[in-house]
Each structure stands twice: as structure tokens, then as C-alpha cells.
Amino acid sequence: EVQLVESGGGLVQPGGSLRLSCAASGFTFSSYEMNWVRQAPGKGLEWVSYISSSGSTIYYADSVKGRFTISRDNAKNSLYLQMNSLRAEDTAVYYCARIAVAGLDWGQGTLVTVSS
Amino acid sequence: DIQMTQSPSSLSASVGDRVTITCRASQSISSYLNWYQQKPGKAPKLLIYAASSLQSGVPSRFSGSGSGTDFTLTISSLQPEDFATYYCQQSYSHPSYTFGQGTKLEIK
């Protein structure tokens, strides 16, 4: 069974940093491309970042480019999102999502709140 | 960027009703369209992939159709557990996937 478990969310002040982690199990992590997707409170889903299976190809949404860094450690079956210069508008539940042949497989999400 | 527009944004219906939700892409996306169901406090759940393929384990009352720019999700006979928010998502412009704004399905 595919399992994706996010961690690292919490309350952070504007301008601060946070690192999210996603622990993967139940599949060969190194064979799959991964995404981060977020959802602000009461809002829709927003794609944030993509990383290829090897980590060699990376993309970001314009809203986070230059502030967020996606990475992965295939030996540890883990995906990461380093978030710097956080803003109030980054407040959201952050999901890691596996890109499967049939759509996305999702973790349960971790809440990031940016507030003073 | 490809924009995805869902209609309606919200919908009230009764158990047993037939419901249709529409998703329109700003350019042709062939059949690269997925549908998800999301309940409060939960992650989205895949219902339909490639516009019309039913994900394993999803009840057959859910169906999808369309190609190009216009797509529909149909629930043939609403059940109490179907009241949720539904999102379409294009996977044509990999990996910059975009989602529709969501359709909230409420009990009448």
C-alpha cells in the first residue's frame, strides 16, 4: 500500500523558514516523480513544486520560485520542501503527492501557518 | 499556463439525484484530465483518470467523459457519502499541473 506521511509543519513568523518532509513507503520511491501541492484554508488546490525521480529536474510555481527548494533522498525514501522567506499567503496545508500513471497519490498533509 | 474552470462552484442536490459537474480547459488537453473528491480535513481522493477511466475501488455511479477542452463528471445516483468538494486537474502540461477551483456538493 502506498503511504506518504508529511511532517514539519507548524507556526512560523513572516520571513521565517520551515522544512517539510515526506516519508514514502509501499512503493519504489526512486522510480517516481513527486510533487508538493498546497491548499490555503477554505481554498482550492495549488501545485507548488515538482522533482523528477532522480532529482535532476525541478520546477516551481511562480508564487514560490526563489523562496522554496524541493529535494529528495532516494536512499531514505524521503521528499523535502525547504521554505524560506515565508509570507502570510503561504499559510496552507502542504501535501506531498506521487505522480502515478493514474493521477496523483496523496499524503495526509501538514499545516503551515505563517503569522506573527 | 493552462487554466481550468469548473462549473458550478457549488451545487445543492438530494440523495438519489443525478449530478453533473463541468470542467473546461483554456486550451486542448486531449484526455489528460483527472477528477478528485475531497472531504473536510482529508486529502483529495482520485476518482477518475484520463477523463473517463474509473479508479479501482471507486463506485460505478461515478463516471467521466470529454476530451479536448470540455469534460464532465457525473454521479448517477447521489449517496450520502458523496457530499464533498470535487476538483478537476489537468496533467497535460506536465509537471505544472493545474486544478479547477472546485465544486462543493451540498445536501439540499
Overall description:
- The complex is a heterodimer of chains A (116) and B (108).
- The termini of chain A are far apart.
- In chain A, strands 2, 4, 5, 6, 9, 10 and 11 form a 7-stranded mixed beta sheet that branches. In chain A, strands 1-3-8-7 form a 4-stranded antiparallel beta sheet, with no helix packed on it.
- Chain A has strands at residues 3-7, 10-12, 18-25, 34-39, 45-51, 58-60, 68-73, 78-83, 92-99, 104-106, 110-114.
- Chain A has no helices and 11 strands.
- By secondary structure, chain A is mainly β.
- Chain B is mainly beta and 108 residues long.
- In chain B, 0% of the residues lie in helices and 49% in strands.
- Chain B is built from no helices and 11 strands.
- In chain B, strands 2, 4, 5, 6, 9, 10 and 11 form a 7-stranded mixed beta sheet that branches. Chain B has a 4-stranded antiparallel beta sheet with strand order 1-3-8-7, with no helix packed on it.
- The N and C termini of chain B lie far apart (36 Å).
- The chains are: A mainly beta (116), B mainly beta (108).
- Chain A binds chain B through residues 33, 35, 44-47, 50, 59, 61, 95, 99, 101-109, and chain B through 34, 36, 42-46, 49-50, 53, 55, 87, 89, 91, 95-102.
Shape of chain A: globular
- Through-space gap between termini of chain B: 36 Å
- Taken in chain order, the helices and strands of chain A follow as EEEEEEEEEEE
The biggest beta sheet of chain B, please? 7 strands, mixed
Which two chains touch over the largest interface? A-B, 20 and 22 residues
Mean pLDDT of chain A: 96
Structural class label of chain B: mainly beta
Mean pLDDT of chain B: 95
Oligomer: heterodimer
Share of residues in strands of chain A: over 45%
How many helices of chain B? The count is: 0
Number of helices of chain A: 0
Helix content of chain B: under 10%
What key phrases describe this protein's structure?
heterodimer, A: 116 residues, mainly beta, 7-stranded mixed β-sheet, 0% helix, 52% strand, B: 108 residues, 11 strands, 49% strand
